[in-house]
Amino acid sequence: MEKLPAGLWSVPVPIPDNPLRYTLTYLIPGDTGVVVVDPGWNDDETWAALLAGLGTAGFGLGDVIGLVATHVHPDHHGLSLRLRAETGAWIAMHPAERDSMPQRFGVTTPEKRHAGMTRILRISGASDEEIDGLLGGGDGRGEPDFRMAEPDVLLEDGDPVPLPGRRIRTVWTPGHTPGHICLAEEDARLILTGDHVLPRISPNIGLGPVQDAEPLSAFLASLSKVAAYDDHDVLPAHEYRFRGLAARTSELIAHHEERCRELVAVVRSAGEPTMWETAKALTWSRPWEEIGRMRFAALGETAAHVQYLVHRGDLAWAPPAVPDGPARVRVAA
């Protein structure tokens, strides 16, 4: 836990069974109470860590007046429902994030989510054996059933966070999710970047049923947008705080351009690969056989880059090898 400039606090709260290990939850005190940004995963251990962090900072549940979700992934927004029930605090997010919730978390059961993942994997060209190996067989029963809190407050780009005594502005940064936001405290030269910009790793930019039609284009534009806050301390939701936002955004843009070059080379070498074959041939942080369920995220990221390259004119969709077979991609003529 760390006390930050201007009276803010960062509280690491655990993410169970995840290589990221923790989410950095931020406490922002104002004249009338405390706003919690990204309270974390819905888990008793995470809840205990959040309560301990509030106590160390000199606050209790009665001081919490609001919650802001940079986005609705479970390691950020999962605990919001419980925290609102205990405190009566309002919950705020971007309208595009609110609009993504019915498909992602509304009526979806673990069984339906499992069936949807199976369908996506099959369309992408994964074999039944590969699908069973990735999802563990079965029908999804026993998997977590995520219940996500609907917002009370919607924050558009440029809107102030309703915390008296602070001037915190919403910066809409779509890409990682459609309604991802950063929060800029310009008086204190601080910017909370959620998962949009992390100091060491690149956030997943994946193509999915509730994602933008071209999430990579949106993400790259959002990187250029936040580069203007180069004189701010950067407070991300994972890893550690840092400075040099313009340099880091340039690194991320260069990373994705290099990824695009690699992907075109893979497609050129393979001829007309499926999405699964393309993803499997790309370079990842660990060998494909060792990344387990992260292959699903890798597949979504590959699809996002393919969609971007098709739009740019470097790649084109090829007809399936068999009727109703998986989609294939080729180098554009």
Automatic annotation (TrEMBL):
The keyword rRNA processing does not apply. InterPro entries: Metallo-B-lactamas (IPR001279), RibonucZ/Hydroxyglut_hydro (IPR036866), Sec-metab_biosynth-thioest (IPR050662), WH-like_DNA-bd_sf (IPR036388). SMART domains: Lactamase_B. One of its GO terms (molecular function) is hydrolase activity. Residues 22-238 form the Metallo-beta-lactamase domain. SUPFAM superfamilies: Metallo-hydrolase/oxidoreductase (SSF56281). Keywords: Hydrolase. This is MBL fold metallo-hydrolase. It comes from Cryptosporangium phraense.
